[in-house]
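quick one before i forget lol
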Amino acid sequence: MPRNTSIQKLNNPPLDEGDRIGVSFGVTLNMGEFQSLRVEAWAETTIREGETSTSAYRRIYDLVEQQANTKASEYKK
């Protein structure tokens, strides 16, 4: 399933253990006849002890991507 991704770099201070991080992922499906359907998923987690913000992001990204793609596939023709 094709996907669009975008990355936005923010000049925020580094995240530490106990901070919250969130991930969103979306899929847009062409439904035909000039109609489309957008499916989005969002998850949020706390950075665990000994974990970096990057590893926390990776931990939840796959889950969010899978959930959006699974739900989108229910509507795919």
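fyi Residues 53-75 form the longest helix (23 residues).
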